[in-house]
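Tokens for Glycine dehydrogenase (decarboxylating). Go.
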Amino acid sequence: MTSILRQDDNLQTTFADRHIGTTPADQRAMLDVVGQPSLDALVRAAIPESIHAAPVTDSSIPTAVGETEALAELRAVAGRNTVRRAMIGLGYADTHTPAVIQRNVLENPSWYTAYTPYQPEISQGRLEALINFQTMVSDLTGMATAGASMLDEGTAVVEGMLLARRASKVKGDAFLVDADLLPQTAAILGHRAEAVGITLRGFDAADGPTDAQLDGAFGVVLQYPGASGRVVDPSRTIERVHAGGGIAVVAADLLAMTLLASPGDLGADVAVGTSQRFGVPLGFGGPHAGYLAVRAGLERQLPGRLVGVSFDADGSMAYRLSLQTREQHIRREKATSNICTAQVLLAVMASMYAVYHGPEGLRFIAHRVARTTTVLADVARAAGAEVVHDGFFDTLTLRFAGRAESVVTAAHEAGYLLHLVDADTLQVSVDETTVPEDVVALAAVFGAADVTVPGTETAVRDAGTGVPSALDRESAFLTHPVFSAHRSETRMMRYLKHLSDKDYALDRGMIPLGSCTMKLNAATEMAAVTWPEFARLHPFAPREDVQGYLDMIGDLETWLAEVTGYDTVSVQPNAGSQGELAGLLAIRGYHRSRGDESRTVCLIPSSAHGTNAASAVLAGMRVVVVACDEDGNVDLDDLRAKTTEHAEQLAALMITYPSTHGVYEHDITEICGAVHDAGGQVYVDGANLNALLGHARFGDFGGDVSHLNLHKTFCIPHGGGGPGVGPVAAKAHLAPFLPGHPMAQDADRRTGADASADGDRPAHAGGPVSAAPYGSPSILPITWTYVRMMGVEGLTRATEVAVLGANYLAARLREAFPVLYTGESGLVAHECILDLRPLREATGITVDDVAKRLIDHGFHAPTMSFPVAGTLMVEPTESEDLAELDRFVDAMLAIRAEADAVARGAWPAEDNPLVNAPHTAASVITGEWQHAYTREQAVYPAAGQAGRKYWPPVRRIDQAYGDRNLVCACPPVEAFA
């Protein structure tokens, strides 16, 4: 057998062989095209010799195992978690994920491998699902416009605060904070407010703020219902804030809003919160889709993605992302939107939960929750407890004089998790999974064994609710037909299939997006995400219940630290943008701990990701741009000049490596040294780690801190533009300033932790950047499994093949489309930039025309006009096979030939396959064909395409119309006529 394996280069024997798309024979053929003798020679020529990492002789990463063995190990890890009935509340509720949604969305690669819908013509399905989400949030909160999701509730509140500051007429820097705000939200808010000079003033919502507190306050945030479960009418506080010119933000529970008057009904300007309890598993804290919605007049202040309605070239209604000029890749440090601030896959799940249940179903669930809570309150009173609040929805604050801790302990032993407030007080929260048997069990725990407990559905149905009658909801919600048309599972299944069929995702073909690394998300990696041992744990469950999670997270922190050359890693940031922010806040904390409060300047190359500049501003820093030379490298002379000019104020340099231009800069160690000599810290953006892994390490060549994108290099799916995880890795001197969390299970991961709190690893004692202590841990098994099955050798080979793929495409395409930047060796990294500006000058064909024509060929376009306008940034990844790479090359060469035909006059400039692309089925079969090219040329530009044709559902969409005429909720049925 051994000899056979050696003879057959195409035989795939390990997981790495199956993850990597090209065979050894393919790679030899590609190397011939590139002009390199071997993979090792290629990366040694491309990556500067000065930063090549020495081989790791004693790796913490175990030798790779197969898929069966990896899942067996992960089963053992999951077995160290204990699933109990989570009744802690505090913004998280157990929920029933309808099986039709779990199977057809969460576990469906058509949904989880899709990318951010920047090519709207091939994203109509997920855009429709997101507009359903926006409509659901807008209706339930009573707001005019809702965004397409936020990262979680805590960060959504931060965004609401920043929006209020932008929109308020008050020039002061104070923000009022409800004392009953969720504790994790309060912790994030405090950390983020301090960095941008906002003063927080706490107040009791029952009493309202004082005149002194209102003075100079640009806004307020109110929790509704409160963290304690208390329901207080916020309208009086809202009126007083408005009277002073401020903005009112309400953090509202969406399920409660089916029974309670909405924030919009009560006069709020902004509503924020989470949609987690709408069918999204607890997952130890994430990922979940937060939300943010605004009243009329604040639409253009919205952060994050916003789906709107426009029309295509045939006048058919179509969806697209609206107001993209707000976003960080365009406005940089002045942005109000960050494209990474979204959880699309989870928003789709929540929206479909509402579609599945409809308004009647949601009200039924809410009534059942509220009535069960009332029954539980009666039981607690019978057991001698005091029910602290008269008005409540799903959460009770109970006083058990002197015995709250013993009650919580007894509940834990009985299989229930309650929240201990103090020696006398606890909280218990009801959700849709709570059944009468749970009330019976808790009655015994409370000490009401002699009390007759109403343990039947009838008793729950006949109970009242704790919702104050003055706050009963009267306004309608979810009246659009989509929320009543798919009630049977058959209809629901077909609706989900109908939407996914409209979209282009990785399950259809290559998505060659530069800077985004759309590679294989293997089924084995995804398997554990829905295991109950990972999916049903509350983020604040006690340490003894989550040991498996902590072990897995510990493994990942160790492995990621090793491959990056850093000393410690925090997995808390739940997006790459949050990882950037966490790293910069750590740098800020470090300087301030040394008395260097004046160090606030952040140097950022002109080529950098837009998130860099936006994150720097949110970390309280001032951006100074460093020029790049004609080869795309940082201009060393300008860097030295800027470091000298700002030597006393220099906080950090943010630099992406390999560069955003897709090349390995040979002067990277000199760049890092110049910044260190000036007293600054070096932040290396880890977005392009897939071009370095196993060959060079950020921490070795001068980095002090980096974020990593697990949804790029480490295979967590993009999910249509979220979820993501952006761990932050750092040298030991920055560890105390990495994000901690007041409720973290590990003592050395708590805000304010002692460095020796939990063993010999560095403590993370900074403020949190995510609502949950460990960010989005339910998707971390994906990365754990990927690393476990790849091993060091597999990860290293993946980098080599990714670099080979990019250089192969560059070599085959550079005569038709010049490659804009290369390194000193003439090679690129794992992506290349094709310059289409000469094409436009010669033929009139634009980068948009090329991108849309690629749809006719059955491709998602590469990244358009970033980092250079009029270019395409192409990243093939290591997962694509040679046939797919060649298919892409053939498509690009065919497009070049068509453009040349236009230049020769074979087709009119205004009527040719490129400017009319993409072509729908309807466009070629409806009416008389009057174009200068044939139907076959329109829809089958490549030979043999008919059998695998992807048909776009709409033609080219009018982007400008949608921005001028903003419609961001489900259009009426008549619009589809």
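Residues 1-7 have pLDDT under 50 and may be disordered.
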